[in-house]
Amino acid sequence: MKNVCIFAHRGSKGTHPENTLSAFEEALRSGADGIELDVHLTKDGELAVIHDETIDRTTTLSGYVKDYTAEELKMADAGVKFSPSFKNEKIPLLKEVFQWASGTSLIINVELKNDKFPYAGLEEKVIELIRGYSYEKRVILSSFNHESISIAQKIAPEIESALLFEGLPVNFEEVLKTKQGAGFHPALAALTKEITAKAQTLGCKVRPYTANLESDIIYLLELGVEGLFTDFPARAIRLASKFQEGKN
Ligand code: G3P
Ligand code: CA
Question: Which of 9, 16, 40, 185 is catalytic?
């Protein structure tokens, strides 16, 4: 038994093409507690699961997600650039991931990728889908766009939310206080024992990203974080279980 939640970052990104169903399936196989994924809005208002604003880096096509319809996005191969053995992997829609996840008990961290393009109505659309699947208690909504988290909290206070931080502002405690109940998702490099303790004192769950090296994962386990994001969930689970055994 372990008491830290291991989230497979963009699925099992280290071993499978990120943000694809095969990466999420691998996360499940690894025994991850949760998956993390990123959402953007398509030209026809669908929720596409992909990290970047453009499809250039991870797929065989190019251009902005917002300029493609959901159907057009399906023409892109989202697996072959990672490895030819993943050829024909598609960019999933959020509803497809939710449908797949219905056969699992995975926690789903949906990152609203609206820090570059505002994507009007993104929060409402994601929340509507969460409610449609009755996933209110198994989804965490996060974003680097803290205004978006305020909107999500207002529309759906029953859904857990979290603030993502790239660099940590000196007034991060003030920022956390303005978003009552939100989790604290800082970059691994920004996290110290003192910062962890301060956030936990405010009642925030601390879940840093992205810990891949064994030494980094062990460092976070020793800090006593509530969760962590990793591209290698199997590795993190093994270390977390061993860490917990050592404590018992
Ligand atoms: O949610 C944690 C992490 O995914 C945030 O950074 O760039 O991987 O989306 P990024
Ligand atoms: Ca993300």
Answer: 9
Rounded to whole angstroms, how far apart are CA atoms 105 and 7?
13
For residues 191 and 164, the answer to whether their CB atoms sit within 8 Å is: no
Atom of ligand 1 nearest to the CA of 109: 1
Q: Where are the domains of the chain?
A: 5-39+107-247
Under DSSP, is residue 67 helix (H, G, I), strand (E, B) or coil? helix
pTM: 0.98
pLDDT digits (tens, 9 = 90+) for 90-118: 999 999 999 999 999 999 999 999 999 99
Alpha carbons 68 and 73: distance in angstroms, whole number? 6
Nearest residue by C-alpha to atom 4 in ligand 1: 9
Neighbours of 78 (CB within 10 A): 28
Report whether CATH 3.20.20.190 matches the domain 5-39+107-247.
yes
- Output the CA 201–ligand 2 centroid distance in Å: 25
Exposure letters 120-135 (e unless 16+ CB within 10 A, then b): eebbebbbebbeebeb
Q: Which of 16, 51, 146, 185 is catalytic?
A: 51
Q: What is the pLDDT of residues 223-248, one digit of tens each?
A: 999 999 999 999 999 999 999 988 87
Least confidently predicted of 1-5, 47-51, 135-139:
1-5
Report whether residue 2 contacts ligand 1, using a CB cutoff of 6 Å. Answer: no
- Residue 101 pLDDT: 98
